[in-house]
Amino acid sequence: MNGTLSYYTKKFLAITAAVLVAMSAQAADPIRIGSFLSVTGPASFLGDPELKTLEMYVEKINEEGGVLGRQLELIHYDDAGNASKARNFASRLIRSDRVDIIVGGSTTGATMAAVPLIEQAQIPFISLAGATVITTPVKKWVFKTPQSDRMAAERILSDMESRGLTKIGLISGTGGFGSSGREQTIAVAREMGNIEVVADETYGVSDTDMTAQLTNIRGTDDVQTILNFGFGQGPAIVTRNYAQLGIDLPFYQSHGVASDSFLELAGDSAEGLRLPASPLLVPDSLPDSDPQKAVVQAYKSEYEARWDSKVSTFGGYAYDGLRLAVKAIETAGSTDKAAVREALENIQGHVGVTGTFNMSPDDHNGLTAESFRILEVKDGSWTLVD
């Protein structure tokens, strides 16, 4: 009898030990954060600071003990702004790398190319691109950190209205971001009622001179202000052409160029223009009572110290994406994808670099137009207007 008990006891202990070893090994597995970004190519001004931000804060989080007692592992690919590559890399992250969550997608085109795969695989995805279509209508597994182009249009047109500017000349890029921004600007103007788009011009991704389009706008009767909706090299060219033509009208750009890199490209031609942006570009101008001040100051100082380069709002999108992912995993208490998705969808009052996020089943962005600050270029630097 004693021998029998001894045998089963030993068997039980052996099995228990094996289970504990397996559980321990599983607990030690890293939490895999997947990403595809436009680190090179025409959208590298987006992807480069995004990747640097993810690398820096994954390292920092790991040094502080990780998440749920596990280290983070960043697995990333460079899609070079190519939507087909983005789709392929998203597939690799899901099927081969078996990541727990994806934080990436520098451009709208790359993001939307990956969305069908992500929805099918049922994996949480936080996009770093801004177009309204990414989260409107709501897609169960898709979230994003930038404000939408519609919010940018709302903020710009409201500022124009406050200055008595109601007749707009619109020029926009023909890429995904510019086209969506154009559509949203026209729609918002129509809804406001007292704002009218009286001129509507576009330019291609490879265009190197927009003088003809700007000349057409300047020649339009009653035009009071001009808005350029685009990103990349195009807006800098528009800005320089604008100055070369001596156009004496208030000039606006979109949030697609909210970075010091744009000021370097546009030079003195940017003087006086306005755009909507996160407060990251003017953190010291915020009052001490602003809950974002400490967050943006910390991110700006840490990024610039680490990389010896100017911070940009695009890196801020990545900071917010990673922090939201970590918060959701901690709330879920695991990397179970359904639990993490549900936690993401219910994040409230999360103060980030871009704004304060209040997610819901009906809103997978969680920001409002008011999270944008209106900035103006004065003496070659960004200044806070509103």
Automatic annotation (TrEMBL):
The keyword Transcription does not apply. The keyword DNA damage does not apply. Keywords: Amino-acid transport, Signal, Transport. It holds the Pfam family Peripla_BP_6. Residues 30-380 form the Leucine-binding protein domain. Residues 1-27 form the signal peptide. InterPro entries: BCAA_transport (IPR051010), Leu-bd (IPR028081), Leu_Ile_Val-bd (IPR000709), Peripla_BP_I (IPR028082). Coiled coil: none annotated. GO terms for biological process: amino acid transport. CDD domains: PBP1_ABC_RPA1789-like (cd06333). Belongs to the leucine-binding protein family. This is ABC transporter substrate-binding protein.
